[in-house]
Specification:
about 350 residues; Rossmann fold; 3 domains; single chain; alpha/beta; elongated; 434 Repressor (Amino-terminal Domain); transcription regulation; 12 strands
């Protein structure tokens, strides 16, 4: 069997260093045209070609446009979540315009997420990354700052301490609009089925709900945490509706899938929507219009939100001025699931 030809053999035949061979085949500056041709001729003579994966890796630069997105959540839950379907679609549309790629990874926890970012950056597999599901004192922010990796956070800038560009929706203003709308209908006991309390946007919504209810003189608003799944949304709805004394007359949900599950629970308990219970969903996916009655919702352009986030990241990668700022605030779309309570 003939010995395998290596880059050192090509270098020896051309009378140059192995580094010069690498420069020649990666189209990097630093070699004269005659030297470059001599190296290529030596490679042809020996029948040597660079390893495809290594060649591609060596050429990886921010201009290649590969964007990384790591999600710490179960794959099955991601497939059922309309928000991420639309968000990733918006990202992918912009990336396609750049002839780039989206590198998506699902992991179990934040430590693993940071490890993936570190490996991607070390191996030059991505030009930058998008961060989602920010928490207060989020450890990913300083970790990426130390790496020097371009990153844009899809979350409130108060959660980044100014160390990462941010694109966000004004969740506090959206919650206030929903509560004021329900109060105008005559509701005084308003509850919420929220998400993970460790997440920054969950905490922002919780504080806005409590503050607005207090400002309007409503009964103290109760929020129950969940993992955003339909099963958890149904369980939280049952807990809220278990008492006939302080049972809420309206519930706001942190996503559409939990609102749909909550509507099913209300019907299971013999409650009429919206006469006995008004419901407001969040995000306003197609699920809201397919449910009977159709769900009122805090609607926003999730596809456009994803596009805005990745455009900001490309500005950062290309060293153009980045103008972080809010995406359009979710707006209330009343439908058949909200009305004055019977007792109003």
């Amino acid at each position: 069997m003939s010995p395998r030809i290596t880059i050192r053999d090509v270098a020896a035949r051309a009378g140059v260093s192995a580094g010069a061979v690498s420069l020649a085949f990666n189209d990097r500056p630093g070699l004269s045209a005659p030297t470059r041709e001599r190296i290529r001729a030596a490679a042809i003579e020996l029948g040597w070609t660079p390893h495809t994966a290594a060649h591609r890796l060596a050429r990886a630069t921010p201009a290649d446009g590969t964007v990384g997105l790591v999600l710490a959540r179960p794959a099955r839950q991601l497939g059922l979540e309309p928000f991420y379907t639309e968000f990733i679609s918006g990202i992918a549309g912009v990336i396609a315009e750049r002839s780039g790629s989206l590198l998506l990874r699902l992991v179990h926890d934040r430590d693993r997420e940071t490890a993936v970012h570190r490996a991607w950056w070390k191996d030059r597999r991505v030009a930058g990354c998008i961060l989602v599901d920010l928490t207060e004192d989020d450890p990913r922010i300083p970790a990426l700052a130390r790496l020097g990796m371009p990153a844009v956070a899809a979350g409130h800038p108060g959660l980044t301490d100014g160390r990462a560009a941010a694109v966000w929706t004004d969740d506090a203003a959206a919650v206030e609009e929903a509560v004021r709308y329900l109060a105008l209908l005559g509701h005084r006991r308003i509850a919420r089925v929220g998400g993970d309390p460790a997440l920054g946007h969950t905490a922002i919504r919780t504080r806005a709900l409590e503050r607005t209810a207090a400002d309007l003189g409503l009964e103290p608003a109760r929020s129950l945490p969940t993992d955003f799944s339909g099963r958890a949304g149904a369980r939280a709805t049952r807990d809220l509706l278990a008492s006939a004394v302080d049972r809420p007359t309206a519930i706001i949900y942190d996503n559409d899938i939990m609102a749909v599950a909550g509507a099913a629970v209300a019907r299971e308990l013999g409650l009429h929507i919206p006469g006995d219970l008004s419901l407001i969903a969040w995000d306003d996916s197609q699920l809201c219009r397919l449910t009977h009655p159709p769900l009122s919702a805090m609607s926003h352009d999730v596809h456009g939100f994803g596009a805005q986030v990745v455009r900001s990241l490309y500005d950062l990668i290309d060293r153009r001025p980045v103008t972080p700022g809010p995406a359009p605030t979710p707006v209330l779309v009343p439908r058949g699931s909200s009305a004055p309570p019977r007792a109003a």
